[in-house]
Amino acid sequence: MSGHSNYEPKGAVARWMDSRLPIVRMGADFMAMPTPRNLNYWWTFGGILTLCLMIQIVTGVILGMHYVAHVDEAFDSVQRIRRDVPYGWLMQSTHAVGASMFFLAVYIHMFRALYYGSYKAPREVLWIIGCLIYLVMMATAFLGYTLPWGQMSFWGATVITGFFGAVPVVGESLQQWLLGGYAVDNATLNRFYSLHYLLPFIIAALVGLHIWALHVTGSNNPIGVSDKVKTDTLPFHPYFTVKDMFAIVVFLTIFGFFLFYLPDALGHADNYIPADPLLTPAHIVPEWYFLPFYAILRAVPDKLAGILLMIGAIGVLFVLPWLDTSRVRSMRFRPVARWFFFIFIFMCFILGWCGAETPDDPVKIMGVDTGLSFYRLSQISTLYYFAYFIIILPILGLIEDPVERPASITQSILDSSNKPASGEVMAPAE
Amino acid sequence: MALKSVRNLIIAGGLATASLTGVAIAAGGDGPAHGYEMVQPKWNWSGLTGTYDQEAMQRGFNVYANVCRACHNLDQLAFRHLGDKGGPFYDERYPNPNDNPLVKNIAAQYEVVDIDPEDGSEITRPAVPADYFPPIYSNDVEARSVNNGALPPDLSLMVKARTDGANYVYNLLLAYSHPQPDYVELSPGQYYNPVMSGYKIAMAPQLQPQAGLFEYQSDTEGQKPPEATVEQMAADLTEFLAWSADPKLAERKSAGLMSMTYLVLLGILLWLSYKRIWRRLKKSEA
Lengths: 430, 286
What we know:
The complex is a heterodimer.
Chain A: H1 12-18, H2 23-32, E1 34-36, H3 45-64, H4 74-83, H5 88-115, H6 124-146, H7 151-164, H8 171-179, H9 186-217, E2 233-235, H10 236-261, H11 291-297, H12 303-323, H13 337-356, E3 362-365, E4 368-373, H14 374-399, H15 409-417
Antiparallel strand pairs in A: 1-2, 3-4
Helix pairs in contact in A: 3-5, 3-9, 3-10, 4-5, 5-6, 6-7, 6-9, 6-12, 7-8, 11-12, 11-13, 12-14, 13-14
Chain B: H1 2-26, H2 54-66, H3 101-108, E1 111-115, E2 122-126, H4 140-146, H5 158-161, H6 165-174, E3 191-192, E4 200-201, H7 230-245, H8 249-285
Antiparallel strand pairs in B: 1-2, 3-4
């Protein structure tokens, strides 16, 4: 934990416990953590994500009591849950919609880190653990989507596990080893269920490390200038607990809107048809949160190259702290980089759009044919995606002239409250 | 500062909702073809508070039992489900649907396979409410062989298993009369239907006015049921199938209303708490 502990055990029992297992001290320090006072609402997603994980685990454990992992019964057992288990419809919908909400929150959390440079020193390990969490989340979501054993479950699993077959030399044996057979079947469903139950607890452990690392370095903040004086920070409780709770309730309202009024809007109708290995759906499309990566996968004609690109798209995030050469954290003070960042977000949406469409179809905007196929569009946006990390950020850091930053968090707050600049000396680069 | 935060929050919330709604719209499949315009009735269960109309569901079940049942099963339904709260034959006098005489009567009209308790031989007996709708064919091979190679799909989830399912089912039943373009070639036993994917369907038009299939009867005295026109039958059937795909809709929406109200009130209280706690800070600094 950062800084020294201010906890003083009161009473004999508390002292006895504190000298054996200082768990109360840990909790107290946790709540007292000095937190930059200028955090905005983009910083509330950490708390929101913790709640998302808890919701998924609780609803998932309950669903696991009723779900049957067998190819002949899985589909019907989900329907039994929705129709006959008391509040089963609520548990199942919460779990399914919750997966989408989890990804929505994690993407906002990641974009926030990208914009405010939260991956830069000294938070590289914090960032890398976050990338690991995201990776395990993707695996968990994919495995979970297989379990209802609808058409998209089956064919999605077939397509994704097919990637492993493209690995040179060992591909075919690797694929069979993963599937437990020559095709997606009962053995696959069983192991996917087992792993889907396991991985969330690994995520929980990684989240523990993520929060630990956060408490060592402290939170980044919107101006990216490290806290220096005591007035820069506030204790986490009550200032940020109450703010996070408010944001959580706003988030839950959006969650509830989908859960209660559009429970199927984020899913795919084909998954209400039981899996049929002999009937391929017209379009095999992953869930929305995988669409950008699906577009990258299909952006090149070669299967193996596509897979390497897709892995690279996530892999590049792990080395980002060393790719971005700028010493200025927050994009607020990077007049050029911030526009490249906004284009980057835009391109991520374009990739998602490409992933949802058929590659050969022409791109139409408001009914006007642009003469561009989705295949080309996905190539352009894939190129930008990688260029942003590998070319733009490394070069911009060297040539860009950042705007002067306030000396401290306190100073930035003073500056914004009395608008005529007080003529303070600006801080040198950190 | 606070205003800016609120602005950011609104942007975030708006972006989240907009992008997810965009996803939801983008997920919509291919529409019908050949100039066929989807008819989009105002369904009873649409909107934030709409629920199914019980009499319409009952008429719809009649259509299913008299027409669709010839080939299509309701895999996910037991007879008792018909008498569940929110279901077509729910009666508040019978909270346990197994006691509901209407449900018992309906079940008794179906034969299910069972085992003779005396000698273990296979027998058939009239169904009871706890039984599921019995399959029509003993297996898919038999189903295909008597249906010209086509497999009549399960209807219990049909409205969820197609994009914009309610309008799909309704229009599919009505679209047969749409003029067939010359280039669509049909094999024997196929029919033209612009709503069906591929525009060819193995199901003959089932709801025809001249057939005089049956007349609607009303259990309520003095109330005249609507005339069983093709449109009326299609709409009622859709209402029944929408319920069978999503039987907890009423429960879901009422839970939604309560949850959303609670969340909004809690949100206001938390906002006020947040303002109050942070105000402390400004005072001490001044």
